[in-house]
Amino acid sequence: MRNILVTGGAGFIGSNFVRMILEEQKDCFVVNLDKLTYAGNLENLKKYKEHSNHHFVKGDICDGKLVKKLIDEFNVDAIVNFAAESHVDRSIEEPKVFIDTNVAGTLILLEIARDKELERFVQVSTDEVYGSLGPEGVFTETTPLSPNSPYSASKAAADHFVAAFGHTWGIRYNITRCSNNYGQYQFPEKMIPLMINNALNNKDLPVYGDGLYVRDWLYVYDHCTAVWKILTEATPGEIYNIGGCNEKTNLEVVGIILERLGKPDSLIKHVKDRPGHDRRYAIDATKIINELSWEPSVTFEEGIIETIDWYLNNNDWLESVVSGDYQKYYESMYKDR
Ligand code: NAD
Ligand code: TYD
Q1: Whether the model pTM is above 0.85
Q2: What is the CATH number of domain 2-182+220-242?
Q3: Ligand sitting nearest the alpha carbon of 249
Q4: DSSP per-residue codes, 221-244
Q5: Residue from 13, 79, 96, 283 whose mutation best tests the ligand 1 pocket (most atoms within 8 A of CB)
Q6: Does the beta carbon of 149 sit less than 6 angstroms from any atom of ligand 1?
């Protein structure tokens, strides 16, 4: 039995990761530590709340006492750290909490992983730590870090701490740097679910600037299989880029959503751009493909249709997350755009 502490396991990617383990790895026990911020939602794991291989704890990764207690109580072998403040626009409005969770919280986990001599510490990072690309080129694992947003700066700082703990104390770590994820249970502050939700409600789709910004989209399940392979097969100290070679402009993605939902292009509204908006991300994932034989299971064209249909078929989930505070968030973020 492998006992894994998954942090942020009630968020978008973390909950997909926990579900994948519970479905596919019967000899694995998951301790799921999540603060349940606005982005964390136990409904993401509704079917698995009482699963015998799953123990959920509401708590903060900054609470070292609690983390130590969980590691001892459940004989934890490895930590996979998904917990984070994850939205670029929020980091521009309010950067401080990004330092608290993404940097200070990671540091606390690292100190505990070091002291408890855990088998592995996997830091789930992002391609955004590399900064922005022009029309050509791709990020490799040796691309220098050059983060542009408070979010990516906090993730890059955490990556440096992880590597420094490996260098100084020999902790067995890996860092994953994935491109933009899409799929079921993504909170509708991120572009794809926000556009789906607005289109379903016949509301304007707020496309930042010219809409020609490029993201390299990966289906969330494929990110999860990559993290699992890294956790179980990678050599400690290695960093892996994860991506699906699916570069699309934001306008292309919005076009696919409108077409699938049978809504008119007239819903597209170009709005004031995001300050410091990174123009293009693109991942070279050769290393994980060659070394760990990982490959994505779906194309973007398949995954995006599945995703749109999931939101259509899970209107209750969508309705519940866009009630209350989300309305205030949307109002404050978009009213002057
Ligand atoms: P999310 O915002 O959907 O989920 C984050 C989760 O972390 C939430 O459940 C939240 O409650 C929890 N959390 C926040 N602060 C916490 C704290 N102090 N203690 C415990 N739990 C806390 O984010 P996501 O999109 O699922 O991203 C997960 C990870 O993957 C993040 O580290 C992010 O940087 C990284 N990542 C995301 C993407 C993407 O496209 N979404 C791409 C690459 C990497
Ligand atoms: P987002 O989902 O916030 O991810 P990230 O900024 O981490 O890449 O945004 C994806 C792209 O969509 C990015 O270029 C910003 C753009 N975008 C919009 O045009 N309108 C929106 O309302 C949002 C949230 C994002």
Answers
A1: yes
A2: 3.40.50.720
A3: 2
A4: HHHHHHHHHHHHHSPTT-EEEE--
A5: 13
A6: no
